[in-house]
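Subject: design request, 553 residues
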């Protein structure tokens, strides 16, 4: 390799993964002005229209060009089923294919992280990073919300009689209408906030990567499948990657640090393939250890969603609007900037509640949509007018693992979340179904409810409801924890509270895999927050003043 080639492949920072965390990190590191950054993305550029029109997620999520078509291992708690769990594989990562609901979680989530020994990760510490990311449109409390960030957050501008009936039903049960579940309190019901602006999806690539590339300090390389981290002793020195199975292997060097932002499954997989992980896992793969670290791949958690479907009457649902002439009507409305089904979230209205006692803090999330999908057929709407109300436990107790399937970096990882293997998760799943039923059968739906399709009115006992949950539930696509952050004395920790991999110099992980416990939320907002904080840690910048410090001043 010539000297010029070496210079072209040497950077201050090498980031693996152009998803939520990777795009934001590239932006923040480039803003400093002193450093060069190489950003590697295994997928192609985000040029497909389905990655930008919100309604296109139905096609994007099943397209192997733009999404890893991962699936879980058969699960004992889910009747031996495998569950498809696609993850983003293009610029923007999962923010280019997901349901785009913005949800931070409860303050207690992050206070728990701090209480577990992760300094600087309590709610008061991380709130400024949440605020830094977002550009909250419309009226908002500036104490909690940001107005100058790159990620545009808007309120849903599409209203529907069934959504209003769901909100009315929840209020009648005792849940308050909550205008902002990302502010003072999460508890309540309303319409989801989302990263959609003027009818278009605002992905991490749109919000952060494109401005970073314009700086001239970011070298973006697409279709670059990372095969291994390189080392000099126990110092990470760079990344090897190939452009497709069997393609020529190239290497980029990191003068300062390598940062993994590959996501909840791929980051632990890459560490293991590179010789960092449990001794028995590495031995089983035939990989020479660089550093044995028992927690790599352990502590995996995911949200497990159970959905009930009912027929609707006396009202047009998304099932009707997405076909034939009516679909062209929706396309026309979207094209002229009017509210349309092309620019709504897959889940339109939300509820945060305690499944067994509505007076307590929420332990489930309710997702309502005035539409329904065919069972076991991803992305295909039912032929009848339908509505769906699902719930998932906010902080599941069941945990599993991620492992490299083989030494071949192109093989999908082994993903085993162990859904419904903890008694508390089973109890909350059953209680959630009961609450969902109570809402759908309330007087607010009297004019619209035309019979329960799934699970069906004859399924009544707790045992039957749990069996239904095991046989029909699915992922919420929220993989976390397999590179868990924790203090050094925690034998399961992979990174410290500076996100540095234990036992290795020059290597950090900054994505959802470092979350010590599951936030009571969709995980994307917290992943952005982690990247914001990671940038300050990497650049050794002083953390923004916490809320408590501001109050004191």
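Subject: RE: design request

Done. Sequence follows.
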């Amino acid at each position: 390799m010539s000297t010029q080639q070496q210079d072209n492949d040497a950077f201050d920072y090498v980031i693996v993964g152009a998803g939520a965390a990777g795009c934001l990190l590239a932006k923040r590191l480039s803003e400093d002005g002193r450093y060069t950054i190489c950003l590697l993305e295994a997928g192609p550029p985000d040029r497909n229209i389905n990655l930008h029109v919100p309604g296109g997620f139905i096609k994007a999520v099943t397209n192997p060009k733009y999404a890893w078509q991962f699936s879980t291992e058969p699960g004992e708690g889910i009747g031996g089923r495998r569950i498809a769990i696609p993850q983003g594989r293009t610029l923007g990562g999962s923010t280019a294919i997901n349901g785009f609901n913005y949800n931070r979680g409860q303050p207690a989530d992050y206070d728990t992280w701090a209480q577990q020994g992760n300094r600087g990760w309590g709610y008061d510490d991380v709130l400024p990073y949440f605020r830094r990311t977002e550009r909250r449109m419309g009226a908002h409390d500036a104490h909690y919300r940001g107005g100058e960030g790159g990620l545009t957050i808007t309120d849903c501008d599409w209203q529907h009689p069934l959504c209003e009936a769901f909100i009315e039903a929840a209020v009648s049960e005792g849940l308050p209408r909550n205008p902002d579940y990302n502010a003072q309190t999460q508890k309540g019901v309303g319409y989801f906030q989302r990263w959609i602006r003027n009818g278009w999806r605002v992905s991490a690539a749109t919000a952060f990567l494109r401005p970073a590339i314009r700086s001239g300090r970011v070298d973006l390389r697409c279709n670059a499948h990372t095969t291994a981290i390189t080392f000099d002793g126990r110092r990470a020195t760079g990344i090897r990657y190939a452009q497709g199975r069997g393609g020529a292997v190239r290497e980029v060097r990191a003068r300062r640090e390598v940062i993994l932002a590959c996501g909840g499954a791929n980051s632990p997989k890459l560490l293991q393939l590179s010789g960092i992980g449990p001794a028995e896992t590495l031995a089983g793969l035939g990989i020479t250890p660089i550093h044995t670290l028992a927690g790599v791949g352990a502590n995996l958690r995911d949200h497990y969603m159970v959905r009930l479907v009912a027929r609707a009457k006396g009202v047009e649902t998304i099932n009707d609007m997405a076909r034939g002439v009516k679909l062209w009507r929706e396309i026309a409305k979207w094209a002229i900037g009017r509210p349309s089904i092309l620019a709504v979230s897959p889940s339109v209205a939300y509820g945060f509640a305690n499944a067994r006692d509505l007076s307590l803090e929420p332990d489930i999330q309710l997702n309502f949509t005035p539409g329904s999908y065919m069972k076991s057929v991803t992305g295909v709407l039912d032929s009848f007018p339908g509505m769906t109300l699902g719930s998932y436990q906010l902080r599941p107790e069941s945990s599993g693992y991620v492992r490299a399937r083989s030494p071949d970096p192109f093989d999908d990882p082994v993903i085993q979340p162990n859904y419904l293997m903890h008694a508390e998760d089973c109890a909350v799943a059953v209680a959630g179904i009961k609450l969902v039923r109570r809402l759908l059968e309330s007087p607010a739906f009297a004019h619209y409810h035309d019979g329960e399709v799934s699970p069906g009115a004859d399924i009544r006992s707790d045992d039957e409801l749990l069996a239904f949950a095991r046989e029909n539930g699915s992922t919420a696509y929220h993989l976390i924890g397999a590179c868990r952050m924790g203090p050094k004395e925690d034998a399961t920790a992979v990174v410290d509270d500076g996100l540095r991999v234990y036992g290795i110099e020059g290597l950090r992980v900054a994505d959802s895999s470092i979350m010590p416990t599951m936030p009571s939320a969709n995980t994307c907002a917290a992943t952005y927050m982690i990247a914001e904080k990671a940038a300050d840690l990497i650049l050794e910048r002083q953390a923004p003043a916490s809320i408590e410090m501001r109050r004191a001043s």
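The first helix runs from residue 3 to 8.
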